[in-house]
Amino acid sequence: MRRGGAVAIGVVAGWYALALALLHPLADGPVADSWIYEESVRWFRATGEMRFPGFTETMPVAQVLYGAAWGAIFGTSAASLDLASAFLGIVTALMLYALAMRCGARTWQALAAAGLLICNPCFLFLSFSFMSEIAFLAALLGSQLAFANAEGEHQMRWLWLSASLAVAAFAVRPFGGIAILGPVAAILIYDVMRSDRARFDLARVCSMLMPFAIALVGCTLIWWWLTISRRPPWKLLQREANFSQIFNVPAWEYLRMGVLGPLLYLGIVLSPLALLQVAFKATIRTLALAAGIFVATMILVHIGIQYPSMPEMSCFGGWSNALVLRGLSERFEWHSAWRYVMALLGSIGAAGLIFATIDVIPRLTRASMAVLIAAAVYWVAMLPLWFFNDRYFLLMVPAGALILAMAPIPEKLPAQIAVFAMTVAMGLMSLGGTYAYQRGLTAVMAARDVLEKRGIPRSAIDAGYELNGLELYPFPRETDADDSGVPMITSSKVSDYTIAARPFA
Predict the structure, then answer these.
(1) What's the mean pLDDT in 294-307?
(2) Beta-carbon contacts of residue 300 (< 8 Å; ≥ 6 apart)
(3) For labelling alongside 384, which of 4, 177, 257, 334 has CA 20 to 30 A away?
(4) How far apart are CA 299 and CA 89, in angstroms?
């Protein structure tokens, strides 16, 4: 265990060291939505007040506090806060390894699970962005690992820690509530339903549930403070007003984008381990299921618009248009014939994941059950909110990786080599996309600086979503900002000077 842990630390830390060596220096600018939370950190450090721009839809209080603490030591530049996320990315991967080991996985499979996470294009990309996904996963996996350690004489200490980290997860994203539902459901299943009546101890079960009951109260108070006692961001109010539209969407659309989409995504990004299910476990049966998933996908692909029919992977090869930012003509999209290849890979990987889940269910422990229940609740809750892209699917990757880490796969050296080779290949693609984005952002900032030196006012320059938000969107702002006229933020207008990789109409 200790030797495996040392190897895991070396692999994860070494991978991030390689990434930093390639990405150095990090672009000192916001990545995607991170300008929203960076500004909140700076405002909190300057005034002691917790404020969020009206454009935000989530209010990660815990992440802002973490960023402020980090900033007190290392500063609050965009690059510094990106490194704060990278540190959490390392911790998150190591917690997944420890969780898999605690749930009964073999060392090499637990290491492979951690590798699938850090080599995931979305996870690696967001590890160098002060967005909320990495901070949320860190708190979520921390809560689940603490719950997995809740045994023996120190059980209650671990349960209180698990519940506390669940509140921290909620204070990053409201979906942190699943960190409470998972352990509670697992306790009810393993300590109540499966308990011998003669040995059932009601007082003990109540004491185990108490930390999570208190955590639920804490989450409720945080939600009340953010949305009732103070005016919530106008963007959040806008989303709530549109919530009733869920009933106007055809059922097949939810099947296409909310069920098959995430399933194909998990099948693709977990394929290095999932494909072993095809090679060693009921190959014919797995391929038959894969064929069914593929045929269903092709049918649904050709109903309506084709592009959203496939799992959106904006972080594959970098964030959307990352390569175009660097003046390259290539974009990673699903319009080409490659979408059929990726759909086939995703179908086979998804079938492998499904049969791995069936194999693992009899071996589930209380801890692993909590993880799977939390992921299932998240998946269901994701559907009506229309959270259909890799940023949101990413939150289910640790649960899928844990299943495959626990799956009974033959321990053969060639298979292990193949798993790690495929994982490294995905990781190299992830590094390429992250590098392309960082260098693209650097090029855009350089073009902005040239224009400003020529005397062009910043308000006349459209430098893209991230920089427009950071530099043009008024902060803080309580009211509806539809009239603020910030290009790509609250307005579709074309500025006098728009930075683009090539001419457009």
Answers:
(1) 72
(2) 252, 255, 256, 260, 309
(3) 334
(4) 38
Share of the chain above pLDDT 70, in %: 88
Position 367 pLDDT exceeds 80: yes
Query: For residue 17, which amino acid is it?
Result: A
Q: How far is CA 259 from CA 122, 174, 264, 353, in A?
A: 19, 22, 9, 14
Mean model confidence pLDDT for the chain: 85
* pLDDT top residue among 331 and 376: 376
Start-to-end CA span in the chain (Å): 60
Task: Transcribe 146-170 into DSSP letters.
Answer: HHHT--GGGHHHHHHHHHHHHHHHH
Is 215 strand, coil or helix? helix
Which secondary-structure segment (H or E) carries 497?
Answer: strand 497-498
What 3-state class would DSSP assign to 131? Answer: coil
Q: What is the pLDDT of residues 11-33, one digit of tens each?
A: 999 999 999 998 888 888 998 88
> What region does 459 belong to: left with phi over 0, alpha with psi -120 to 50, or beta?
alpha
The span from the CA of 15 to the CA of 19, in Å, is 6
Peptide bond into 457 cis (omega under 30): no
Helix (H) or strand (E) holding 469: helix 465-472
pLDDT tens for residues 472-486? 888 776 554 455 678
pLDDT in tens, 130-164: 999 999 999 999 999 999 999 888 899 999 999 99
- How distant, in Å, are the alpha carbons of 263, 295, 372, 434 from that of 401? 13, 25, 11, 22
**For residue 430, with 0-12 CB atoms within 10 Å meaning exposed, 13-18 middle and 19 or more buried, which class applies?**
buried
* DSSP one-letter code for 487: B
Structure tokens at 478: 């309580």
SS3 call for 63: helix
- Residue 238 banded pLDDT, cuts 50, 70, 90: confident
Contact 303, 379 (CB under 8 A): no
CA-nearest of 178, 205, 182 to 193 is 205
Nearest Cα to 260, choosing from 226, 220, 291, 297? 297
